[in-house]
Specification:
By secondary structure, the chain is mainly β. Helix content is about 10%, strand content about 40%. The protein contains one helix and 15 strands.
Length: about 200
């Protein structure tokens, strides 16, 4: 019994000694790098990985793109070729009579090849307010119309579209197509790859 009490006593003393020792104050050197801010409105060329269609992709459907070129800013490669961009279909308009289907794709993050993730805000760019599709559908019929040409003094028949339109078609972004991401907010990049 005495031996057990002595062993417990020495264990308590050794535990108290370990807790009493303090570690030296070590200051780590931080690299001198403040990061880079990529401004809003920057275009990033990317390639579509999978086919995206309004026919079978619902709103919220996850999409993935890969950058096709290196993006440099102040002689620093801030977005290397092969960086992955992720997002989702934000809005889908189904096809109706007279109008084709439309969709809007939002980009939310990019992931470097080493796995580092950067949140971002952007859209897949189109000149139609970032909306893919949404154009007028084909006319049901064309109307023949006489057109008098003054310079050659002849009358020719021309076809003009009628008022009625066909049912719209679904919009598809094919796999492997080259697209552009446009940033809507500035992105702070504090991580760059060194090859």
């Amino acid at each position: 019994m005495k031996k057990l009490i002595i062993v417990i006593f020495f264990l308590l003393i050794s535990i108290l000694n370990v807790q009493a020792t303090t570690l030296p104050d070590i200051q780590l050197d931080i690299r001198d790098y403040a990061g880079v801010q990529v401004p809003a409105g920057t275009f990033i060329p990317v390639m579509n990985i999978q086919e995206i269609s309004t026919q079978y992709c619902p709103e919220g459907y996850k999409v993935k793109f890969i950058s096709t070129n290196d993006l440099f800013l102040h002689e620093t490669n801030i977005i290397p070729r092969g960086t992955e961009f992720y997002g989702y279909i934000e809005k889908i308009n189904a096809p109706v009579v007279g109008t084709n289907a439309a969709m809007k794709i939002k980009i939310t993050k990019m992931i470097y090849q080493d796995g580092y993730e950067v949140p971002m805000r952007g859209y897949l760019y189109t000149s139609n307010n970032n909306i893919f599709g949404g154009g007028m559908s084909e006319p049901v019929k064309y109307i023949k119309m006489a057109q008098r040409q003054v310079s050659v003094k002849k009358t020719t028949l021309q076809l003009r579209p009628g008022k009625e339109r066909k049912m719209g078609t679904h919009t598809v972004i094919p796999s492997g197509s080259n697209e552009i991401i446009m940033l809507t907010d500035p992105v702070e990049i504090t991580h760059t790859l060194i090859n």
